[in-house]
């Protein structure tokens, strides 16, 4: 596979979080811009760990919503400290305005759009996304009139429309049936390849789906006789020949890796 890893886009250094007990201990990882000749290749990274391990807390730290007790999160090509609001978040419970239609929620997301599109072009873009993600019949509905899967797709598109290069997703596969998981995978892959610098960070307990879509995965777990969760394993799925392949689930090496990792979280 022909690719290079260039500039650092997200750099997490020595992050610690303690409430009444240690939740996260010495979290370190970085995400580099992956470049593949002749294509827009974004980055898809997952942080995988069992329920209660601290994934949502780490998600909030990466989003700038929770300050760690120590350590830093730097983002962007210029590597500045992350600020709340600058990364897109698709949280465990999707944030949509319930008193506005799907269309208006999406229009609102484009308020600060850097392309300076006029109203007609904005509507055309929304219609285009809606069509691609099977939402065209639902644009006039309100969020509470949608199914969970539809709401999730609106929420992901909303983050794409804000123009955020970084999008964090907390448990994007939970509560979806197999067909819908495939759609979300497709949508995320499309988002990742829309722009070279687009970077998706997924936190999830779902080993199989997370590994299937990622180029890099980090296992978040406890180490023996130590408090708090830390990264216990780094999987470079590109080097393993298991990335960028929609049919990867059928691969026996992939299946082996999934069952191995299930024992490690
Ligand atoms: N504000 C808080 N004060 C004290 N403890 C907290 C606070 N918020 C979260 N915790 C604790 O932090 C730990 C990690 O919680 P977190 O929500 O990050 O888990 P998670 O890995 O996302 O779990 P799940 O997979 O169930 O979503 C839990 O033990 C939780 O009780
Ligand atoms: Mg969580």
TrEMBL record:
Keywords: ATP-binding, Nucleotide-binding, Transport. Coiled coil: none annotated. PROSITE patterns: ABC_TRANSPORTER_1, ABC_TRANSPORTER_2. The keyword Ion transport does not apply. SMART domains: AAA. Transmembrane segments: none annotated. It comes from the Bacteria. Pfam families: ABC_tran. Residues 12-247 form the ABC transporter domain. GO terms for molecular function: ATP binding. This is ABC transporter ATP-binding protein. It comes from Chryseolinea lacunae.
């Amino acid at each position: 596979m022909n690719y290079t890893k260039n500039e650092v886009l997200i750099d997490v250094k020595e992050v610690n979080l303690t409430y009444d007990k240690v939740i996260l201990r010495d979290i370190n990882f970085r995400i580099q811009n992956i470049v593949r000749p002749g294509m827009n290749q974004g980055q898809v990274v997952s942080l995988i760990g069992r329920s209660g391990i601290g994934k949502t807390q780490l998600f909030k730290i990466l989003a700038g919503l929770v300050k760690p007790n120590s350590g830093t999160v730097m983002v962007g090509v210029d590597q500045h400290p992350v600020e709340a609001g600058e990364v897109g978040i698709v949280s465990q419970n999707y944030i949509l305005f319930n008193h506005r239609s799907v269309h208006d929620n999406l229009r609102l997301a484009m308020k600060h759009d850097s392309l300076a599109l006029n109203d007609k072009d904005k509507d055309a873009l929304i219609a285009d996304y809606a069509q691609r993600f099977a939402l065209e019949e639902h644009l006039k509905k309100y969020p509470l009139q949608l199914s969970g899967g539809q709401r999730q797709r609106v929420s992901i598109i909303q983050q794409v429309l804000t123009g955020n290069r970084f999008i964090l997703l907390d448990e994007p596969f939970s509560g979806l049936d197999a067909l819908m998981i495939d759609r979300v995978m497709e949508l995320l892959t499309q988002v990742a390849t829309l722009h070279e610098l687009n970077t998706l960070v997924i936190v999830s307990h779902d080993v199989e789906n997370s590994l299937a879509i990622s180029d890099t995965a980090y296992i978040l777990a406890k180490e023996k006789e130590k408090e708090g969760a830390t990264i216990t394993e780094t999987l470079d799925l590109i080097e393993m020949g298991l990335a960028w392949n929609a049919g990867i689930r059928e691969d026996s090496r992939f299946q082996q890796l999934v069952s191995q990792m299930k024992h490690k979280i």
